[in-house]
Amino acid sequence: MKLIGLISPNLSEDTLVDVYKILPEGIRIEGRALDVGVYTDSEFHRVEQGFTEIVRQLARQPLDFLMVTGELFLSYKGPGSDQQILALVKEITPVPASTVLTAVVHACQALGLKRVVMASPFPEDQDARLVRFLKHDQIDVVAHRCLGYQNSKTIWELPPETGYDLASSLLREKTGVDGLYMPCNKWRTISVIERIEKEFGKPVVTNTQAWVWEALKGMGMAKPIEGYGRLLRMAN
Questions:
Q1: pTM
Q2: Using one digit for the tens of pLDDT, what is the confidence trace for 67-83?
Q3: What is the rounded distance in angstroms from the CA atom of residue 223 to the CA atom of residue 24?
Q4: 2-102+209-233: which CATH topology?
Q5: One fold for both 2-102+209-233 and 106-206?
């Protein structure tokens, strides 16, 4: 049995359902929630104050990998902030670790995505931060469109079709891009990844799909997984 420690905003058993759909058998998640109310700097700062203690708590478990998700929490300090988080984690535990934004960058690099469009459930100002973050790692978001929701509870209630509709409108307009990025693990989009890829012939990178891929690689368990896009069909 392998154990992944997961630190994630507003984590619940419901949000792990999609994760377990993707993960191979023999892997368990030990989760800790970051309680993010609304997407504001003051809220992210408040959550940050308790982050170190959450890492310490998880590090007491026999973890094989530690993943930190929450694109907006990770990016609110600016480009490269994921590496600051990982440096802090390394001071606390020797367990291999990554963040969802690190995973997204690695996924785009593995798929050869340099020019992408981004379909997001977030507000415009938060999208702008993600655009700057990716640009720092040489991934150019040439167009993005957002739904404007300010909290994860509302996003969780959105049907997956909202992701398909938003992504489709972008890909019809920007046919020359390399692929698509869809942030937020509360936006239940894993069920539409294959549909988008087949219809538009472009790779799709999403939150849950990317961090699962990164964690499996980090544990030496990478193998092709069908049904959730080109990224997870890659063996390494």
A1: 0.95
A2: 999 999 999 988 999 99
A3: 9
A4: Rossmann fold (3.40.50)
A5: yes
